[in-house]
Structure formats: C-alpha cells, structure tokens
Write a structure and sequence with these properties.
81 residues, mainly alpha, elongated
Length: 81
C-alpha cells in the first residue's frame, strides 16, 4: 500500500468513526455493537497512521518505504504521545 492509498483509507475510516460516534450520541442507547465496531476501527486507524509514519520516515532517511509493515495493534496501542 502506498502513501496515497493509506491516506485514502485513513480518510474513509475517519468518516466511519464520525458516523459511528454520531449514531451512538443520537440514539442514547447502549449500542454494544457500535461500540465494538468503533473500538476495532480506532485500532485499525492507529495502525494506518503508524504505517504512514513508518513510510515517511523511511523515505526521509533514504530507505525503501515499501519495507514498512503494519505492526500489531497491541504494539501500536502501547505508544505514548
């Protein structure tokens, strides 16, 4: 996946995230299914951002960005801001 494809995927996921959050806020119900989908979406979004950062860093330092790989969500979720 190249940088453009990753950004396109991130944009679509952000839109999905917004729709899910709006649905949860407007229904006023528990929404276990929506919360589960939102949680999975947030993890996948973090992985995409991480992959994009990896590709940009490799490009910046003269390495092949295609060598960047999706890291497990358990690893990505452990990063500190």
């Amino acid at each position: 996946m190249d940088q453009r494809e990753i950004l396109t995927r991130i944009t679509a996921m952000v839109e999905d995230e917004r729709r899910l959050r709006d649905a949860l806020a407007s229904t006023g119900t528990d929404g276990d299914t929506e919360r589960s989908r939102l949680s999975a979406l947030e993890r996948e979004l973090d992985q995409c951002w991480d992959l994009l950062r990896q590709r940009r860093a490799k490009t910046e330092f003269g390495e092949n960005p295609d060598e960047a790989a999706v890291r497990p969500s358990s690893q990505v979720e452990g990063y500190q801001s």
